[in-house]
From TrEMBL:
Protein name, per record: sn-glycerol-1-phosphate dehydrogenase
Keyword Isomerase belongs to the record: no
InterPro entries from the UniProt entry: G1PDH, Glycerol_DH
Superkingdom: Bacteria
A biological process term (GO) from this entry: phospholipid biosynthetic process
Amino acid sequence: MDEILNLDLNDMAQTEFDCSCGKHHNFSIHDVAIGSGAINKLPEIAAPFKEGQILMVYDNNTYEAAGKQAHKLMVDAGFNVKELLFDRGDDILIPDESVVGRILQELSGPTPEDTRLIVGVGSGSINDSCKYVSFHCHLPYIIVGTAPSMDGYVSDGAPLMSAGRKISYPAHLAYGVIGDTNIMKDAPQELIAAGFGDVVGKITALADWDLAVKVKGDYRCDTCVTLVQRALDKCFSKSNLLPQRDEEAIKYLIEALTLTGVAMALIRISRPASGAEHMLSHYWEMDYVDRGLNPIHHGTQVGVATPVIARFFEELADILPEGTGALCPRHEEIEKLLRDGGAPVSPKEIGISRELFHNSLLKGYTVRPRYSVMEFAKEHGRLEEIADKITAELYD
């Protein structure tokens, strides 16, 4: 029982066990390869699909980071590789209808039946788009990560933009996940900081989950909580070295992001990774896209949203269920953690306007049907009061 807690990350693939939470968990990813030189395992992991065509997807940035190397490895090993490169110049690739549709076009002809595997080379946008398309086309996919920027490499959800809204669509787990620390440590510093912000967000996500368990009777798996908390502790022990691109610190960051994904995959929900801090991030992102602006990196937004949500727990300490408030550190402690790890600390720092910020505190809980501390504040008639106070403290 709970055997996964005793396994190394690279040994967790194809694990199933009876959990102390009363459920049978199955982590069905076939291969996980995290470490120095891990990209060289791509042909071996893809070997079962060698007889068919492989569609390899990247953008102009991820092609340079790892796509060129991944393509050469596959071609040299005798694979038939078809390439799809999204050239967005200096703009961020947004995983929307146009990106998903373009991948589908490449699968639609002239001989779609020959495609046996999709290989995505990238991080959030590439991963989510390939995951979604492969799920609906009943194809396996492998993701070659290029940046430790988010936790979705081993999750089965695909957050995509649709008609201007951020929607998390059901998808499936990757067949294989490759995270080469030699590649990821050279990612742009802003992406490393974004990944760290996403990890910091798990602090309030776990507190939110506890609140939902105690107030609404939600299901919780304590094995997954332990898995995530151990990964956070390990990552935070070296996070002050992230700005120097310390290889061990980068490895711990990748492990934290990946293990959070494992926890989500085990229980098929994103509760171990996502709470009210993600709702604020999604609210801001939808506003930016609606105005035709490039959104800020998801993890960066999650990071700065985390001490904001910590303030909610502080303001509601007098009415929170017993023990819930103790799970969330003070906002000052979280801000120091972000700052020491080289990540932005406040929404004002990343350009979120006062009006957008205040509106997000009032309406962020409506972004998705998930109970959070913001909805708790609304139910107790204190949401507007807290939103006004936090906004004034951060912007006035």
